[in-house]
Design goal:
globular
């Protein structure tokens, strides 16, 4: 059993929290206002000091983001990518020695609110995070699909691809295990190499708005076909 802190309580963060909690992990969802979040029954929230439930109902602890990062073995960044670097750089002490799984994309919106440009052309959010957090092992993954595919890859007609980027092989092995808990089969996971390869997968986000404008908000992933 792993203790996982998820920073960001939007659709991405809450979906990941539910699935990982159901897989048996102890999950803390980092939110801006834990007291308000604890009154949301949809999250199945419990008090941080409460003994974990022993039934099959997923239970998700709520805390502020600093506490979520400090108390976890593995931290997932599901905050908006254009502000992630500033947020997480302030958690350097809390994230030291830990694996940080970055699933966000840092983009500037076009006029219609969809991704238009990259915030870090010639680099990537993952690289920027790794530079700002030298004592943390950053792994980039799950950023090349709509959020609902992250936790239900088997629902697509074509097997999707989850790309991995990171400098630490052991960290990527651990993250591969978490992907398995989310429903990803080993054949669907593609290790691209070091953290610099994240600039390639982050650039893939630029194809997403064009697909959404043509086909609407339907689940898909940018997938490697063989």
């Amino acid at each position: 059993m792993t203790t996982i802190g998820i920073l960001g309580a939007g659709r991405v963060g809450t979906d990941l929290a539910r699935k990982l909690s159901a897989a048996g992990h102890l999950v803390t969802l980092g939110v801006r206002n834990p007291e308000l979040g604890a009154r949301n029954p949809e999250l199945g929230a419990r008090n941080l000091e409460e003994t974990p439930a022993l039934d099959t109902t997923p239970q998700i602890a709520l805390a502020d983001q600093r506490t979520a990062a400090r108390t976890a073995d593995i931290v997932i960044n599901a905050t908006p990518g254009d502000t992630s670097l500033d947020r997480l750089a302030g958690l350097r002490t809390e994230l030291a020695g830990k694996i940080l799984v970055d699933v966000s994309n840092a983009t500037r919106d076009a006029d219609d609110g969809l991704p238009g440009d990259l915030c870090y052309p010639g680099s990537s959010l993952a690289e920027q995070l790794q530079a700002a957090l030298p004592d943390t092992r950053v792994v980039k993954t799950l950023n090349t699909m709509l959020f609902m595919v992250m936790t239900a890859p088997e629902t697509l007609a074509t097997p999707p691809t989850a790309y991995l980027s990171g400098d630490d092989q052991n960290a990527k092995k651990t993250v591969t295990g978490l992907l398995g808990d989310l429903g990803w089969q080993p054949a669907w996971i593609e290790d691209l190499g070091g953290i610099t390869t994240a600039r390639a997968t982050e650039a893939m986000i630029l194809v997403v708005p064009h697909i959404l404008r043509r086909h609407g908000f339907k689940p898909f992933a940018v997938t490697l076909a063989r």
